[in-house]
Write a structure and sequence with these properties.
The protein is mostly helical. The chain contains five helices and no strands.
């Protein structure tokens, strides 16, 4: 039986960790949206922020423990947070777009935002924040 390529294993593990973080994100989003005066856009931002903390903890433990910044966790966490800002922006814009096109559809807005944010942020984190040590040594 052939072994799954490293990128596929990482993507699968990243997906699983992100799914767990999304559960926390979504629960926070739903709670804020239903129990406060916050708009859906801001409820999504709050949920995303809470989920981002959970995601970082899971990703450095289970997916990218040997990233090029493993000995410099503060820098790694800072870059992770900066890529999270990209995710927040993608989340906010996606929810705002769904709300403007379809109205306040709580679940549709979050599902669209999660897909857009997940894809964009995975690519940036894989290529920048958690790139492999070998890639770092081969850089000019």
């Amino acid at each position: 039986m052939s072994r799954m390529p490293k990128v596929s294993r990482e993507f699968s593990a990243y997906f699983a960790c992100s799914a767990a973080a999304l559960g926390v994100d979504y629960a926070t989003y739903w709670t804020v949206a239903r129990n406060t005066a916050a708009s859906l856009e801001w409820a999504a931002v709050i949920g995303y922020g809470v989920g981002m903390v959970v995601a970082y903890a899971l990703l450095i433990r289970f997916v990218f423990p040997q990233g090029w910044l493993r000995s410099r966790r503060k820098l790694e966490a800072t870059l992770f947070a900066l890529t999270g800002l990209l995710g927040l922006l993608l989340t906010y814009v996606s929810v705002a777009l769904v709300v403007s096109l379809l109205g306040e559809h709580l679940h549709t807005a979050k599902i669209v935002a999660a897909g857009v944010s997940f894809t964009g942020v995975f690519v940036v984190r894989k290529l920048v924040v958690f790139r492999s040590e070998a890639l770092n040594h081969n850089a000019p």
